[in-house]
Amino acid sequence: MYRVLLMLGSFSLVLVLLVVGFLWYLTDRYAGNVTRIPDVFASLDPATRPDPPTPAAGTDDIPMTFLLAGSDSRAGGPTTGESATAEAGSERADVLMLWQISADRESAFAISIPRDSFVPVPGFGTTKINAAFAHGGPTLVVQTVEQLTNVRVDHFLSVDFTGFKQVTDALGGVDVRIAEATEAHGVSFARGLNHLDGDAALAYVRQRHRLPGGDLDSVLRHQNYLRAVMSTVSRENLLTDPGRFDDFLLAVTASLSVDEELSDYDLLTLVFDLRDLQPSDVAFLTAPVAGTGVEGDSSVVYLDMPKATEMWSYVNTGTLQQHLAEFTQLPDVPR
After folding, report:
1. What pLDDT digit, counting tens, does each position of 77-90 carry?
2. Cα–Cα distance measured from residue 87 to residue 308, given in angstroms and rounded to the nearest whole number
3. Window from 161-165, 199-203, 251-255 with minimum mean pLDDT
4. Of 99, 13, 104, 24, whose CA–CA distance to 58 is shortest?
5. What pTM does this model have?
6. Would you say 162 and 255 are in contact if contact means Cβ atoms under 8 Å apart?
7. All domains of the chain in start order, with CATH
């Protein structure tokens, strides 16, 4: 009996060591590949920040909210990810999305805030929201969005355009549908289905000119690109192809910068919890817009604040999913 117990104990110890070793490998290879941004939330006054969401009845689970900024780098080098060579503040937020993942991790939504939105930026008056990144980096972007929406941001993520290219190429390209033929940055896009490599995807998400809606059409392209990435991962079932999935995860993690408060464990846990999330489980929306205009010498977007306030209240009460039809969603085939 003693020998049996000894063998069982030895087997359990080996099993524990294998699990710990595997978790360490995942942490080092993927979570450890993500660049950390220090002190994003440190200088924010807790008394002026929105309250955290209330847990769902009968559980301790709460939604998780991310602010995603895609930086329009003007510094001549990557500003996010492991290969960053330019300093934060040398870029503007060309893509700004508020992502919320449901408490049960079975659905999510992304709300785009147009880069030209004319809103109050703390310390800088009312100006275009994308200037917050250049004026005060991630902290000011978070402060601006929280003040605008009254939605508490849990974590901040940033990816620059170099990251768009790397992720797209790691997938072998993505397929997007385009409503009208157009050309941008030396790349021609046909009406209908287009297969984009990294350079073409970059041209696609950067185009604003020659689009009837300008910045608003550009917002839809950002959303359509992310939907295409999710669809590619799901359609090709990368989880069954360890080599390609490894390349994809390495490209994604190497392209991201996140706040240092998101621990490696939390990041890995989140990825595991979202393993069954499908593109159909994610709704893409745009903050309500009242119209466009000119302020000084800049074209701007005016948000429909009464309607937007309604949207943010649904976000805070966890009921946006029931009110999606009230807001502008990503069409099947944007321009």
Report:
1. 444 445 443 344 44
2. 33
3. 161-165
4. 104
5. 0.86
6. yes
7. 34-326 (3.40.630.190)
